[in-house]
Amino acid sequence: MRRVAWGITGGGQYLAESVRAMREVAAQHRVCTFVSKAGEEVLRMYGLLEELREISGGGYLEEIFLESESGRSFPMTGRLMIGRYDLLLIAPATSNTVAKIACGISDTIVTNAAALAEKAQVPVLVLPTDVREAVTRAPYAVNREMCNACEICPPQTACPQGAISGDGVRSIDLMRCDGCGTCLPLCSSSAIDAVRMNVRRRGIDQRNIEMLRERGYTILESPEEIPEAVAKTATGRHPPSAGA
């Protein structure tokens, strides 16, 4: 049984697929999750926070550590230095996160975990959002061209989070939306939807990914690789020490 540290950053690309893959991993291994501030926001937008709590149920080495609740020093990432985890998986890893790790910047809970894992020779697996061109789904939004600006808006009235606002053409506050989808069947003009879009790879993102590969990071190409990669990855070299 592996003791997996899982870092989640603020990318919608591969997020739902990574959560599904980690549910499979959690059936055989212990999963402790570290979530950046942006990651927390995006998990909520896509309605995945509750599913995450099922994967990391709260027992020892199965907690969820939110950056928003971890102070400025992220003390629990120190577990990586004392042998508490066999590997660190970052999935999805945004281009911002990959760039920071490539440049040695560790100012989020996830990039800090990566820095400590590398120092402690704990294997690090990374699934970059920009590893290849792909189609991704954006959070729910109102199509202004389709919205009929109804005087009474049933989706606005029914939204449990109060995320839909405005008179006339409405808008969705993504800081309040939890992706529940209650609004979808209630809109008579079908103006609420999650837009799909093509994601183009930038050259600089590919160069940053290659920098990580050269430093010994394992780069994953898709979420489907996660369960097998976790099972096959050699454990960290340091034996567990006393402490957290």
From TrEMBL:
<feature type="domain" description="4Fe-4S ferredoxin-type">
    <location>
        <begin position="138"/>
        <end position="165"/>
    </location>
</feature>
<dbReference type="InterPro" id="IPR017896">
    <property type="entry name" value="4Fe4S_Fe-S-bd"/>
</dbReference>
<dbReference type="InterPro" id="IPR036551">
    <property type="entry name" value="Flavin_trans-like"/>
</dbReference>
<dbReference type="InterPro" id="IPR003382">
    <property type="entry name" value="Flavoprotein"/>
</dbReference>
<dbReference type="Pfam" id="PF02441">
    <property type="entry name" value="Flavoprotein"/>
</dbReference>
<dbReference type="GO" id="GO:0051539">
    <property type="term" value="F:4 iron, 4 sulfur cluster binding"/>
</dbReference>
<dbReference type="GO" id="GO:0016645">
    <property type="term" value="F:oxidoreductase activity, acting on the CH-NH group of donors"/>
</dbReference>
<protein>
    <submittedName>
        <fullName>Flavoprotein</fullName>
    </submittedName>
</protein>
<dbReference type="InterPro" id="IPR014073">
    <property type="entry name" value="DmrX"/>
</dbReference>
<dbReference type="GO" id="GO:1901285">
    <property type="term" value="P:5,6,7,8-tetrahydromethanopterin biosynthetic process"/>
</dbReference>
<feature type="domain" description="4Fe-4S ferredoxin-type">
    <location>
        <begin position="168"/>
        <end position="197"/>
    </location>
</feature>
